[in-house]
Amino acid sequence: MTTGTKATTERRVNLYGMGLEELTAFVQELGEPAYRARQLMEWLYQHHVTDFHAMTNLPKALRHTLAERATAEAPTVAHVQVSTDGTRKYLLRVFDGDTVEAVLIPEGERLTACLSSQIGCGIGCRFCATALMGLTRNLAPGEIVGQLAAIQQESGRRVTNVVMMGMGEPLANYTSVMRALRLMNHPLGFGLGARRLTISTVGIVPRIRDLARENLQVGLAVSLHAADDETRDLLVPINRRYPIAELMAAVRDYIEQTHRRVTFEYVLLRGVNDSPADARKLAKLLEGLLCHVNLIPFNPVPETGFERPEAAVIKRFQEELTSRGIPATVRRSRGSDIDAACGQLRRRQPV
Ligand code: SAH
User: What is the second-level CATH architecture of the domain 2-71?
Assistant: First the structure.
């Protein structure tokens, strides 16, 4: 019977990361009523209980069957670093033993979790630390929502906002990211309002169009970084495939369909894209659009060779935009002392 037991173990399915539909199908296959799936949702995502034997409102026999047939494996915290500004950077172990980073950013009442969508990234933006890793693989839905769960467990606090701005390109892992976001949004899941969830993308045009058709009101942030193709080609190589005009057309359609204000991220690199003329070009490109610009002064990644502009240059750039009616804010760098700021995630912490 040893081989039989082994085969059963191998067939055990990981329920963590499944949504209501998948869990319902699973419990019905076991001959259980559909409401068991709702109970499982609550245990897994609201109470962060992954031991079936501790799920006290399920019949004992069912708990036993679940333990035999399934697992509920969520990512675990391997290491935490705390910044002087209260930002916490997490190294999390995912299903195959590999690791990803996620960041928790407290800002008054707001507690934002910055989550990863992939292990590494394959896009290759010239100024980003994650790009130096290359792409290992996509994360599964459970590995994405599990980052949120692990962070809440470790910090003992409830996250109020989620931004998919950690490692990876969320729209290059579209299906899993959407499943994860729906679980975060679901009332039996993490119960976060869709408006508190944001996807940041380098600009994968067909997926922006797909996102516009989802009936989930998540926020969209687009990493623009330059207002002309010549500069953007150099900084964000995928611009050769999806140049600015195509990207802007997709964003315009997105706004028309969702009526949501889109954020444009713009990393400020000294002498590259930070001149008043660059700002005016950007203002012209965004004219009349329901949008907001988030300027991100470059966070140091020494290998890239880029530098951050002087404070006065950053201020001038912002003023060129706002004086032309384009709302623009400067993103405060959070957690840069522990390499947790935008573009600095690359798993350098000790394990
Ligand atoms: N791949 C997605 C999600 C990453 S979000 C995207 O490109 O939008 C992280 C944000 O930080 C992006 O806007 C990214 O371009 C920016 N970023 C990358 N490296 C940076 C750095 N060194 N300093 C400041 N911002 C950086």
Answer: Orthogonal Bundle (1.10)
